[in-house]
Write a structure and sequence with these properties.
Elements: H1 3-16, H2 19-27, E1 34-38, E2 41-44, E3 49-52, H3 55-58, H4 67-77, H5 91-104, E4 110-114, H6 117-132, E5 136-140, H7 149-154, E6 170-174, H8 179-186, E7 191-196, H9 210-222, E8 226-230, E9 256-259, E10 271-275, H10 277-284, H11 301-316, H12 319-336, E11 343-349, E12 352-357, H13 368-378, E13 381-382, E14 384-385, E15 392-395, H14 403-421
Parallel strand pairs: 3-13, 5-6, 5-7, 7-8, 8-9
Antiparallel strand pairs: 1-2, 2-3, 4-10, 9-10, 11-12, 12-15, 14-15
Helix pairs in contact: 1-2, 4-11, 5-11, 6-10, 8-9, 12-14, 13-14
Amino acid sequence: MGQDSFEIAVAQYRSFANPYWIDVLESIGILRPFVSGSGCYLIDDEGNKFLDMVAGFGAVTLGYNHPYLMKAMTKAVGTPAPGVIPWGISPETGVLAQRVCEISGHGLSKVLFGNSGAEAIDGALKFAAARTGRAEFAVCDGAFHGLTVAATALAGGGEWQLPFPPLGPTVHRVAVGDLHAVESILACKRIAAVVIEIVQGTGGGAVWEPDRLLHLSALCKDYGTLLIIDEVLTGLGRTGNWFAFHNAGEDFMPDVVVISKGLTGGMMPISAVLVTDEVFDALCGGPGRAKIHGSTFAGNRLAMSCGLAVIDVLEAEQLPHQARLAGGRLIAGLRNLVNQDAISDIRGSGLVIGVKISDPSGSDDRTAATRCCLGLMSRGVLTNIAAHDPNYLKLTPPLIITDDEIDIFLDALDDSLADSRNGETH
């Protein structure tokens, strides 16, 4: 895209889409045409390469333009079979559903596909309400579960809720890992489900440890409450296993698991709600309720084909294992920088990592991570801030990230922190 064409596109976006997003991009110096992507890099129209540690907020699991995925999508687009069949099924849907159930295990035996993580969360809440006959939910501080009406109600505070009166279902909030608070809430026996992210993204990498997950599961069963695991960010290998809940071992049995981002590598909108047979039948049991929940594009052929190709690559290249190794190397490198007094906390699992950036002067300055993010951007590295805790850098790179690329990031971070100590800003 030429500069004139891009300027026209920006003007159109400003006039007819979201002018305030253009203001944000201009203010941080990243309003530019990204014309291609390769592996872990985005490339602009001047040939500048940016190491992408955001990766579509965790969606670009295979990196950009993975050859196997591109070939599979080209084949799918060139096939004359219909993309959406109102009175029928796309054959690929059953195949993908079976593969997702096989890699998930733990009694999850049915899949309901959709288009986004937020949509899938809404579906999960409906499953829980139908199964329990209850309408209240428990969530964690710092949570993010999407931006539909019900999902917004679950958000752990923040700007997503500020413009609105109370929306959606009644929600109770607890701190990550606070089992005493969970039990106090469950004791009312009005809670349909506890909804958690095992590793939070917007919460700066806060983690539910395996022993607490097992205790949480037992509490839910004691009080007749379902346990919903939001794996929109963490599913499909990002934490070192196929799913983050696998880190709790074979005895951990969630009732509902939600996945989305990584299932098509950022190429197609998709989501999936994985449930047990009992939970599925509570909502959809019988021909009369076979389509009680769904959407027009759920199970469309292109998304299903893309999902199958992504799982092929994840298996063939052993990317869940690679994510575990890469995450370990990245965290070890970050710990080597802790003695600079700018990094005060590192948490997460696999390739979902939160890095707390503190002001070198010791002041309670909540812009230190933002300044660091901008410093990294000026050095060709894209990162993000954890929205619920802006003291944290949020790292969710592609699962294919190499040791050399991790070193590039660490060197750039080291230089950015040095700038902060020396009083330089970007």
